[in-house]
Amino acid sequence: MTSTALVLRSDGIGGLLTVVPALRALRRHGLRVVLACPPELSELAALTGAVDRILPAYGLAPLSWPGPGEEDADHPPLLPDLAVNLHGRGPRSHRILLNLRYRGEGTRRLWAYANPDVPWVRGPWWDPGEHEVLRWCRLLQWHGVPADPDDSALPTPLTASAAPGAVVIHPGAGGTSLRWPADRFAEVARMLTDEGLPVVITGSARERPMALLVATRAVLPPQIVLAGRTSLRELCALVAGARLVISGDVAMTRLAAAYRTPSVLVSTADRRHPILHEVDGADHLDAAVPAAQVVNAAVRALGAGVR
């Protein structure tokens, strides 16, 4: 019977993308992978090719293993004897996995970074300046599981792109402090459109009003606003077929990197999570820059002769 690993990464799109190489390493090691993450990421998890099942998880809330009524071929009745913390340095994330119980039994083994508040968990020491993809690969390598940090590419979904060859502008960001102003995104959209490049504006349903504002101020039709109108799988197909991604959201630049799509990131660096250490392949610009500088970066990324 194949052993199962319960993996915690209860984060958004960007967080899940940083653990793709580690998830694939666990699968190559012969483990069945149950990923504890927000269920809305299930389409993205499926594209990794390394996740057998999703266990719904929200932030650092306690996990609930399936009960007797849920046991079937896709819901193993026994708690996995291995849990892997790919979420953080602990101690809260460690304890969520250690406290998981089923029929009186708990997790037997935990692979995680060493933390003085949980001294009985053995693991490597956390390096706060380490690239996040390398961090999770190093954790597995410490436990004897080879992991390739470059194994991060995603397959293109079998879904048609809503705008093949377009420049994708994604003005949303995790917080307003990291967000470039809508007016400047509008300037960029207008400049690129004037040069004959097709532009679409993406975002979540919650971000749709801001995306519409960008289109309005760029004097562009609302039809180009795809925010709130794409599933995660459709967003992946859109990014995979795009010429360029311009974003205020680190997660979108990571998604672009997974599809080898050029990208430009415009945001203020978070001192706790330095963007320049987290994102590969993106031309990173500070949020104070003018729109023309972002367009210049877009031109470099495209390798085209846009003036």
Structure notes:
It is a single chain. This protein has 307 residues and is α/β, with parallel strands linked by helices. 31% of the residues lie in helices and 15% in strands. It is built from 11 helices and 12 strands. It has helices at 13-18, 20-28, 42-47, 92-98, 132-142, 182-194, 208-217, 232-240, 250-258, 275-278, 291-302, and strands at residues 4-8, 32-37, 53-56, 82-85, 101-102, 105-106, 109-111, 167-170, 199-201, 244-247, 263-266, 282-285. The chain has a 5-stranded parallel sheet with strand order 3-2-1-4-7, sandwiched between helices. It has a 5-stranded parallel sheet with strand order 9-8-10-11-12, sandwiched between helices. Strands 5-6 form a two-stranded antiparallel sheet. The relative contact order is 0.12.
Low-confidence stretches: 270-278
- Please tell me the overall pLDDT: 87
Q: What proportion strand?
A: 5-15%
Structural class: alpha/beta
**Helix coverage percent:** 25-40%
Number of strands: 12
Q: Strand sequence of the main sheet, in spatial order?
A: 3-2-1-4-7
Tell me the Rg in angstroms.
21 Å
**SS field, number of helical segments:** 11
Key terms for this structure?
5-stranded parallel beta sheet, elongated, 307 residues, single chain, 11 helices, alpha/beta
Strands, helices and their partners?
Layout: E1 4-8, H1 13-18, H2 20-28, E2 32-37, H3 42-47, E3 53-56, E4 82-85, H4 92-98, E5 101-102, E6 105-106, E7 109-111, H5 132-142, E8 167-170, H6 182-194, E9 199-201, H7 208-217, H8 232-240, E10 244-247, H9 250-258, E11 263-266, H10 275-278, E12 282-285, H11 291-302
Parallel strand pairs: 1-2, 1-4, 2-3, 4-7, 8-9, 8-10, 10-11, 11-12
Antiparallel strand pairs: 5-6
Helix pairs in contact: 2-5, 6-7, 6-11
